[in-house]
Amino acid sequence: MNTHHPRLHELVTMLDMHRHPEGGWFSEVHRSIARVTTQSDARGERSALTSIYFLLELGHSSAWHKVQSDEVWIHLEGNPLELWTWDASNNVAKCTNLGPVGPHVRPQHTVASGLWQAAQPQREPRGAGFTLVACAVGPGFEFTDFEMMKPTGADASKLARSWPQLAAFIAD
Questions:
Q1: Among 149, 153, 133, which Cα is nearest to 21's?
Q2: What is the pLDDT of residues 9-32, one digit of tens each?
Q3: In the chain, what are the domains?
């Protein structure tokens, strides 16, 4: 953890955060007791909604991963965030800047289910050194619905050929 930013350590402690497999820190905030059954696939019953806090330190990233439900990212504090999505079937990559409202920056963005996603804090001259977001997933998140991009897989090869600048987000 970056010790030059005491607020980062404070947030990790206050929000009871733990390391996330995709990178960064997280803590679950809510898991709905209401249950829903997915209609479009065979995942079965899920919580209607889950939400987490997610924190990334400057110089770190969230590796390419996908979730089988829609995920809403909401900027809470710190540096703006580059949120990348990649549609492997159409080979289309997009970047959304999350942060305080400004030109080309919005505080919230939804990543559609099944899209690859990755993120990193933007560098700012007097930035906080981290980004804190909230992520809400519906139907609710389960690790069985979570997939990290395999470095030796076909999607990683396709991404690296088509979008070499985004290959850095492929986890080792």
A1: 149
A2: 899 999 999 999 888 999 999 999
A3: 6-169 (2.60.120.10)
